[in-house]
Amino acid sequence: MYFLDGLNPNEIGDFDVIEHAGQLHVFYLVLPTHDSVGHLVSDDGINWSQLPDAIRTGDPGDFDADQIWTMGVAGVGEGWIMLYTANQEHGLIQTTGLATSDDLIHWTKAEKNPVAQPDSRWYEAEQSGNYRMDWRDPQIVEHEGKYHSFLCARQNTGLLNHRGCAGYFTSNNGTDWEVQPPASTPGNCYDYECPSVFELDGRFYMVAIHGGHNRMTWRVADKIEGPYQRPYDDALLPGHNMSVRPCFWRGRVHLFHWNRGARDWGTRHASFACLSSPKIVRATDEDLVVESFDWAELHSGKVVEVTPDTASAPSCGDWRWEGDSLLGHASPGTGNWLTETEYEDFEICADLELDSPRGACEFGFVFRADETGDQALYARCVPGRYSAELVKQVYNRRNGPESLWRGRSVEQTFHFIPSPDGRYQMRLIAFGPNIEFNVNGRLLLSQLSMPRRQGRLGVFLEDGRGRFSNLSVVPLQTPKTNWNR
Asked: pTM for the complete prediction?
């Protein structure tokens, strides 16, 4: 995770990430000025250090004098190239610039710029009216000795609100680029932001922000140039998790993205955007599955098994131990089982077996809770609604007589498919404001929220019976963030 320091911490925009010599490098759009490409480096994908900006806007009259937007970076020979978005006329016209580097730190803009712009045979190539000519967010993929770049563009035919597409251009040397027909034409969005391609198990996957839908989606193709086809369920991540970029790291494809959280933990700013934790992606015959990555390097102590000897304080419902399994029954309403120990940053895992496939109406983890769980965060599955929810329960959001409000608010939702046998493997990561909830190896929730910094931890059921087993908790290192400024 990374929050930029400064007067306005909401300064990290869309980005690209690469691995080099065991380290991760992120190059990012600097907000709100759009006048430079920032640079971060990390050893573990969580804690980042800032390096000098890579490039800045040009002098008056230059092709990139207005603003610089999102970029893509790749290795070419012994050096590196960066394709970046150059804006003109207050962002209404966009072209692609090129910069090169020998060490990833010092960058030089190419003498002949821009190196790519929309071709009127396939794309909107002239700005008209009061909307911009999209040609931005390039990403670079090397495949079989050739360089492929994908970017946000617009087709030159069709309904104006449905022309968003993944533009495509190629190069044999990383310097000279040739525009090609679109690689993906969804036909149902006004733009298709930050399209990024990676290869997995012999197929090619494209992830992108679906403009107008505010969600991350994915497509699949047999060839890198496409065409990329829409799967039946094309949702990649829950809302507020955007601008996904892939990176092959530690032997697996990881997805990096930013996340945006509302002001709910005492900051003077309206919202925070941060570089979120990486996620692991795997492919099945019909699906692309995302889950939290391996947090073991961030563990700050040993895994603690929750057993009948664990000090606890069940607050409601009927709970009892049977061997090493915790049996719960709650009807009507909620049953909470909580540890007496309070936890701050942690990872918790548990297996749940319901009495029957429909043995409970809701279930999951309760955490950062008071002594009863009346004020807490809940990561819950609601099988009857095919939904997962991050729910916050507090007494008063603003601590004053003008806001005598109590109850629950749903911070995030995402769909999930209930298990046909009523068995679930659950995993929750709570790391500072970052909350991640995985069920049966799939990420269902990923959100920023911190109404409470620490609290009790446990499991819950609503209107049903279930058996929890293999309960374990491990503390995590304290995150290096600046949310309390």
From this structure: 0.93
